[in-house]
Amino acid sequence: MSTAPGTASGTAPWRDPALPAPVRVDDLLARMTLEEKTAQLYGVWVGAATDGDGVAPLQREMTADHDWDELITLGLGQLTRSFGTAPVDPALGAQALARAQRRIAEAGRFGIPAVAHEECLAGFTAWQATAYPVPLAWGATFDPALVEELGGRIGRDLRAAGVHQGLAPVLDVVRDLRWGRVEETIGEDPYLVGTIGTAYVRGLESAGVVATLKHFAGYASSAGARNLAPVRAGGRELAEVTLPPFEMALREGGARSVMAAYTETDGVPASADPRLLTELLREDWGFTGTVVADYFGIGFLQSLHRVAADPAEAARIALEAGIDVELPTLSCYGTPLVDAVRDGRIPEALVDRAARRVLLQKCELGLLDPDWTPETGERVDLDSAGNRALARRLAEESVVLLDNPGGALPLVPDARIAVVGPRAADALAMLGCYSFPSHVLTHHPEVPLGIDIPTVLDALRAELPDAKVAFAEGCGVSDPDTSGFAEAVARASESEVCVAVLGDRAGLFGRGTSGEGCDAEDLRLPGAQAELLDALVATGVPVVLVLLTGRPYALGRWQGRLAAVVQAFFPGEEGGPALAGVLSGRVNPSGRLPVSVPHRPGGQPWTYLQPPLGLAGEVSNLDPTPLYPFGHGGSYTAFAWEDFTGPEAEIPTDGGYDLSLTVRNTGERAGAEVVQLYLHDPVASVTRPDIRLIGYRRVELSPGEARRLTFRFHTDLSSFPDRTGTRIVEPGELELRLAASGTDVRHRARLRLTGPVRPVGAGRRLRCEVTETEA
């Protein structure tokens, strides 16, 4: 790599890997011009479309053309989505990215490459890359170790392709099931979101990829479940529900980047909030990484939020708040920022602060080292056999058996089966909106999927070769046309069992029934699917409902009328075989609900984290009680919970307490049980959720096998923000509940906390450790 004569020497302190990173970066910053420093604060989206609907909010309006050759003479902070903008062969894409990086390094005085970032919400969002189950399916596994393995695999694929930063995971906690981005979340409980999300971060970071936590903070609490709508959550709700997963992923996962949310809370946009992005994130939590803008988020301070008069003012507000990098392209942090610094409207110290953070991260990534090279030297295979095996295992663990009252499942191997529904024979039924086929390929209909995605129909025929399987679509996903009902009813009537495969079509900004910008008015099944299901049930043939969705839908209309109900949340490219395995009995279902399944389509928003006034009562005719509660899920085997030890006890407000039980598989086949620990606080100085999850353990058992589980509760887990916003542990009564779901309580332990009110800070315990031994 060359540097311009007479400028940055290869022997300068900033080039010396033996020196501490802060020393190197301070030396480099002192050598840079204002323009060169600001160039480190933005990304460039090469090849981004400026027409059409795009893959980001208001992409067409917010994207401008730039002179690439002139731009990179100043250096460049980030390269936006080299793989995720259009279909490109992965090996060729890696070569093209390496060439672009070499050009950037050669064009600038200091030879510093850009940070290349990509989306990796459910796998590397690139053509021919493995499409894994969506995060909501990760939550259904209740298996952090498996999700950590997932993060590691995705991270290694990103690094092999030359990518440094992944824009994941989403740590938003579901607050309204109608929100289009429910599929991108891990669930409706902050402890589940925090533990699963932290596991993914650990995996991604273990591969040397910068994990980016999003969307910080409050994005999922938008009013009316509308994407980008104002957030009307109070400060205590944010502290209790929204913030804990981010804190855990930073403290325990080591995430090195955070993405500011689009939304505003109580009139203050997140991108303009120094209390959030500086005081809380950096001063209270000790975060030292980079804060990046969500795509066009800084420009939105002017165009959508109207708290800035022009791009320069938007740049000032964002820098003051603590946003270091403008993504996906330059609008505010380019010429408007430079001009505003030159004329005294913005202190250069703000630029220096952000540039120092960016360069420190580049230093950590090796991008300032003299031996840096853009070629990784690794083979680029983004859908390896190992990837597919992991995708299959994750899909299998995520399938939730909601109901099987008469034992209709597993299916009889040689049965006459009618497979009906708009999701049965469509490969895209498996994928969420941030998979490459759903996210990008819809704009390139001439390009093949690039990966093999068996449908439920094909997988079931392969799984049960002796069965006689007939198919009818019945209806589309979202249109009201019922002309296909007659054929569907005929196929069902001729069969011994009907498998109705219904659900969502993932898309963006109204082009789907689930996904970013695809918010729902209510929780009825889309289109004519509910009427199709009614017609199938009316035949009298047993109907097994299989749902492929990005959110739960209200199912109370069919309560007691279905032979079985199976829920899968966009289970990825191996979802078809995984579902066929559950239906055949080859796979024993072990998924548990990360979100409640509503009884009725109205009465929203509702999640299980409710104080007394949020529960059913006589003062309202609307009963929000779900049909299937958070944590619910069935199995083809049975488990006994034995030898519980958890007597009543008194412990100090800074004490701990162990609960133990033995879980035994009393059935005839191997299976997995998920033991969940909930906290109930009967009297407190502020209202509390009736119950909330504070621990869990997934345990796999062979027939007759037993394991002893010990949950190590600490009083920190009972802490909450008091009326002043101070997080405290309060003396008084507590009840710990070991349960198979939010409502299926098996054992209770009653505690009395004694001593003074105890304030707790950022060093408090965030998780309940669980040990597992032979019984």
Count of individual domains: 3
The helix-and-strand class reads: alpha/beta
User: What gross morphology would you assign?
Assistant: globular
Low-confidence stretches: 1-9, 48-52
Tell me the CATH topology of the largest domain: TIM Barrel
Strand order in space, largest sheet = 1-2-3-4-5-6-9
Main pleated-sheet profile = 7 strands, parallel
Calculate the terminal CA-CA distance, rounded to whole Å: 61 Å
CATH superfamily of the largest domain: Glycoside hydrolase, family 3, N-terminal domain
Overall pLDDT, averaged?
94
Q: How many β-strand stretches?
A: 27
- Percent helix, as a range, is 25-40%
Summed up:
With 775 residues, this protein is of the alpha/beta class.
Detailed description of the structure:
- This protein has 775 residues and is α/β, with parallel strands linked by helices.
- The chain has three domains: 21-365, Alpha-Beta Barrel (TIM Barrel); 399-610, Glycoside hydrolase family 3 C-terminal domain (Rossmann fold, 3-Layer(aba) Sandwich); 639-774, Immunoglobulins (Immunoglobulin-like, Sandwich).
- Helices cover 27% and strands 19% of the residues.
- It contains 21 helices and 27 strands.
- The protein has a seven-stranded parallel sheet with strand order 1-2-3-4-5-6-9.
- Strand 2 (78-80), helix 5 and strand 3 form a beta-alpha-beta unit.
- Helix 1 (21-31) crosses helix 15 (348-364).
- It is globular and about 75 Å long.
- It starts with 20 loop residues before the first helix and ends with a strand.
- Keywords: Hydrolase.
- GO terms for molecular function: hydrolase activity, hydrolyzing O-glycosyl compounds.
- This is Glycosyl hydrolase.
- Belongs to the glycosyl hydrolase 3 family.
- It comes from Streptomyces griseofuscus.
